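Continuing the batch. This is chain 6 of the set; chains 1 through 5 are on the previous pages. Same settings as before, nothing changed between runs. Recording input and output for traceability.
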Amino acid sequence: MNSQRQIETVGRRQFLKQFSGVSGGLGAAHLMGMPLELAASDSFAAAGAHFPPKAKRVIHLFMNGGPYQSDLFDPKPALEKYAGTKPSGADLLTERPTGGLLPSPFKFIKSGESGVPVSELLPQLSQHIDKICVLNSLHADNPNHGPALLQMNNGTIIPTRPSMGAWMLYGLGSENSNLPGYVVLCPGRPVRFSILWNSAFLPSKYQGTYVNHSTIQPDKMLPNLKNSNWDHTVQREQLDLLGQLNADHLASRTHTSDLNARTEAMETAYRMQFEASVTFDLNQESKASREAYGSGHFANGCLLARRMVERGVRFVQVYYGNGQPWDTHSGHNEKVPELCKTIDQPIAALLNDLEQRGLLEDTLVVWGGEFGRTPTSENGNGRDHNHHGFTMWMAGGGVKGGMTYGETDEFGFKAVTDKVHVHDLHATILHLLGLDHERLTYRHAGRDFRLTDVHGRVVHEIIS
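Output for chain 6:
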């Protein structure tokens, strides 16, 4: 019995109930964390940039837990001179009590034509330093993971504000109506979990789509993506028939936005069965490509990020791992080399891959954690959280490469020169995307909100 004859034998309400229960497309949208209205066509009609953008998309490589800046990009020789002591300037308050200054045992090498110092722990990434702008003067407002994660991702420590990716999607829309515009990859759950990519008071279609890529089989990353009961032809017939019924239903009503959104979501979820299954299938990559990125969750995340941005996904976040792997309160010097080993090759491959495909020019790559770590020791062999001064870097997307910007004090504890607050970072990212952070607003609860609230300065000095 074909779908048309089936509908003749049951009531319209019963058909809709059956349809919603078994449609693989709808199941895909729901189980990927997408609200049904996410795929409505108006979400893909970009609001438009305020001025010509230098970047069209962003890949955010997030080192959840907080890496220590002076192990990687901000060498501080004074730590050796004053090791074990706690002079003035090294006594700032952090989350926990700390002891004396603890030097980094890792050497720095002046790399690239620019001679920017990079740790020996990142030999492959150092070969791409001429593409990278190192920001050594970041600072934030809170030394605790939860609030710091919220500020880095949502612009504030208040857990009721939209995420950076949601603001970007709200401002620019998506480039591909067959895929989510904002995807979050994490092999597990970071601290605070989905609130870090929520849309809050922005329409829910702008929230991030969470994908656990701890296993890389597409049907595991995207459960219920395909309909096991109906083939594509039958699904198409069912959607066409449902569309006709909904059109009749809409004709007699004035308030139709919600139903329109849900109807259009079904269409997008149907299309996702084809494009998403290909996008998330790393077996589509050549052996050479897979080997270039290396193995492991983070390597797979970097490769998936490239596959998504080349298909029009606007914002991709790649969390390093479950929980807070870079949170080295003990055994710091033993853990850091292993952590660096797992990011060095994948990030170098990602930058090289984007450049070879002509994507790096308009893809902004951002690296960093929610804060840094202290130059003083915790329990003798660990490092506490440090929000006073830490390092992030950006590459591509209109950023000057082969340079450092800003400085911390002689011990690397506090940003002191050309300071860059998290609000400034967000303002600069939006600017590179052609968005004025002061004009990208949304009216809610009687006032206009924005990602940077009432703060933020675009760091024009790093823009090419």
